[in-house]
Amino acid sequence: MSQSNPVKAREHLKPPVTEVGVLGWIHQNLFNNWFNSLLTLLALYGLFVTIPPMFKWAFVDSLWFSGPEACREIDGACWSIIPSNARFIFLGFYPEDQQWRPLIAMILLFVLVFYTQNRKSWNRALFPIWVCGLFVMGWLMHGGLGLPVVETAKWSGLPLTLILALFGMVGAYPLGVLLALGRRSKLPVIHSLSVVYIELIRGVPLISMLFMSSIMFPLFLPEGVTFDKVLRAQVAIILFTAAYIAEVVRGGLQAIPKGQYEAADSLGLKYGQAMRLIILPQALKIVIPPSVGILISAFKDTSLVVIIALYDVLKTTKVTLSNPEWMGYSSEAYLFLAVLYFIFCYAMSSYSRKLEKALHTGH
Amino acid sequence: MSSAVPFWRDPRKRAIVFQILVLLLVFSTVYVLFSNTQANLRRQSIATGFGFLKVESGFEIGESVIEYSSADTYGRALLVGALNTIKVSFIGIVLMIILGVFVGIARLSRNWLVSRLAGIFIEVMQNIPVLLQLFFWYAIFYEAFPAPRQALNPLPGIFLCNRGLIMAVPAKHPAHLPMLISLAVAALLWWLLARWAKKIQDRTGRIFPVVRTGLGLCLLFPALVWLAYGAPKAMDVPVLQGFNFGGGVTVSPEFSALLIGLVLYTSAFVAEIVRAGIQAVTRGQIEAAMSIGLRPGQVLHLVVLPQALRVIIPPLTSQMLNLTKNSSLAIAIGYADFVSVANTTINQTGQAIEGVALIMAVYLCFSLSTSAFMNWYNKKTALVER
């Protein structure tokens, strides 16, 4: 019986164990020729040299919830600097008894963002919802209408970072769209003014704009008129971001086929109507993913306000580090901040990649 | 003569009126700001104009490419700052391109582990603000590294401590200048050789190994000069003197932290650009190149790279500019770049407008000259279409 069915026996013949399953995967992806094998071994050696000591430093020998004295005794990381100073790092100089307000404002912001990231909620209601949300956040932060007023000089920590990035984007978008339209305009004066503005701003570093806001704006204003430092930095960030948005939007405008412009003209629409009803809705849809990219860089760039002595989350961390009790744990504090920034930026960038795929409908 | 159409219905005339109105608005805004500024400057009795450039500065600068002391003028201090900016940007751009190309190719590797590690590097570096990275590397230097007495000594002649990186260099010798000249001659020969080789290739189709020969010349010439001068081998080795090192070359912690931070941050973006550029070359091109019998190295060198470079160069230019602009963050960790020196100048003289205008003008110069050069290069490599 056993030798009567050779065909069946062949069916059961399995591929070599080195070509399938885990071993096969390893062979194909890590050791398929001598060069790749060498690379893999080198990479593994590099990981072996770096990862275990770092793991030991960060997790085995480390302290998480202790006082500064206990940290002096150990070789590992002193993560305790974060929980012990969390309140100051996140909320800075905001009055202690009022700190529930920025907390609620941030939670509200996260809820709004979470609601918006679902494309099912992109409808006419979204815009008024955001306007209301921003208004409530502003009211919570600033006070008035029954809440004690907290002037902007006391705004600090994470809320300041988020506000500068968010309002920077919200304020810069309309200006950026106008500049992009101006750059595409056939009127020579409008065109050249837009080009000069965009190229000038894109040619200089943000820090020079921030310097301008902190030391030149006061000179521009008539005697007796002042407005505060946070607002001035916010204006600088808006003016700066607008130039970058203008270039992104211009890309979107250029991607709209000429037929769309001509169709709008042949319907007898005026310039404003054509832009508002035909061109911009299509162009702005194209530029949503690169706009998220600009939001990410605006978010990262807010950290530059450290240099003009605004207390964003990076500055509050530096202040904590200058406290003699916690001096010398910079690596831990900065790594924590890096993780914080990374989570925000990575979430935004992977969302923008997802959007890019979903919105890619072509013409 | 009366036209049938009133002027507000004629789009051409309306456009002119509209533009005049916009111009008026811009000019009046500028005028208001200017007169406010004038009044404010008079009230605070701040001097105007660039006269301060010739005044003695009275502050020291930590590191400088040219001779400088506090007795020199503000103008010279600003020049020192500008040269420091150029120094860090130039070295940074070279390292950024090398590291970026390396990581970008690693990202495309068929080796899963290498490609993943490159991917992690790119994501981590791109998503952390560059200022935070600068603070981190600077903190590593002054907190994690030991004092000069316990300096780390990873390789003979190289010391790492909280005063920076201290290296042994060849001691000064009269052979060095002729060696440099011979290197320049070799580079010139390389250039001539490349032109000649292209002519030969255009005529006969034969390929001359230009790069190998050129590199060989660049090594051979200085080596011959070095031997001719009796092969001086003396080294200027850093020695611990009291609390610091004497001799050798010191790279300050500020410069190192700035360079490391800028290069790591920007090379992550360059890696993505390189990856996208290589992926933009269609598979058919590679298959066609292989089917006419080119070796893998030739496929890369003759077919993939020339096409990928066209896609890579424009975004690469903007990353080079980004690195230059981000080098202005040096002020946060105390490296004396242009912005930092200008800021000190503003604080001492109170002439904020001139200071900020100088900062903007200098960076505009950097930006415009880099983009002019890259536009020229781009035109040279761009596809010549019908």
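Residues 74-107 of chain B form the longest helix (34 residues).
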